Amino acid sequence: MIESLPLFHRIAGRPVVVTGSGEAAEAKRRLVERAGGQVVADLAQGIAQGARIAFIAEEDEAAARAGVAQAQAAGLLVNAPDRPMLCDFTVPSILDRTPVLLAIATGGASAGLAKQLRLRLEALLPQTLGALARALQAARPALRARFPDAGERRQALDAALGQGGVLDPLSDARAGRVAGWLSEADDPVSETVEIVLRSTDPDDLTLREARLLGSADLICHEIDVPEAILDRTRADAGRRLLGEAYEQPRGLLVILRAAPRH
């Protein structure tokens, strides 16, 4: 089970409360401004302006607790730097390939660990990733026209963006390839794959099995398949117990069987 729900919140042009002084407060002000938000230093003023988020970066413990209580009473989501027990949300370490953003968080356990993971990933993700994302966004009308069915669109994109695909994002894929790929893309076909688990531990999934679970449009599984395995599937994929009626998707169906009992 995940301990928090990752969300990306649009704040451009909107008021965001940042109170306090010192390094932590300045860092939060820079972060809000970087995302286009309007920094409001006074909590009461921010509440009056309709702010929905507050960073209470007070160095004094009593002032921090009072600010958090006031903001939460007004319905704002609150972050209090270095006080995880007072926070409604935490701020991740951000890897920026705009419009692609990767947020790496540890639930407040260790900002240093999140930073080091981000630095490792920085070396893996090419700078062309943002341009590729914008090209795919611009191609959405043409993609819908080429593949009217949502399942077929996902399957075509999975094939193109997967490892070794024509648009593999880790291979320094160029935005200019999108139009050529779309004109030459093969028609997707319905596919059924069966996976028999070896254990109840999701870390025992092979790379291929993990990829299939993450790409499937429908999962038909035995009742004994643990939730930890099912959590590796796409959040919007359909799920059915084996034996229940289902319609073959125009895409990928994965039949998932529990590990044999010894």
Q: How would you characterize the overall build of this protein?
A:
The protein is 35% helix and 17% strand. It is an alpha/beta fold. The protein has four domains: 1-91, Rossmann fold; 92-124, 2-Layer Sandwich (Double Stranded RNA Binding Domain); 129-184, no CATH class; 191-257, no CATH class. The strands form three sheets. Strands 2-1-3-4 form a four-stranded parallel sheet, with helices on both faces. Strand 3, helix 3 and strand 4 form a beta-alpha-beta unit. It is globular, with a radius of gyration of 23 Å. It starts with 14 loop residues before the first strand and ends in a 5-residue tail after the last strand. The model has no long low-confidence stretch (mean pLDDT 91).
Describe what is shown at a glance.
The radius of gyration is 23 Å and the shape is globular. Strand 8, helix 10 and strand 9 (238-241) form a beta-alpha-beta unit. The model has no long low-confidence stretch (mean pLDDT 91).
Supply database-style keywords.
262 residues; alpha/beta; Rossmann fold; Double Stranded RNA Binding Domain; 4 domains; 4-stranded parallel beta sheet; 10 helices; 35% helix; globular
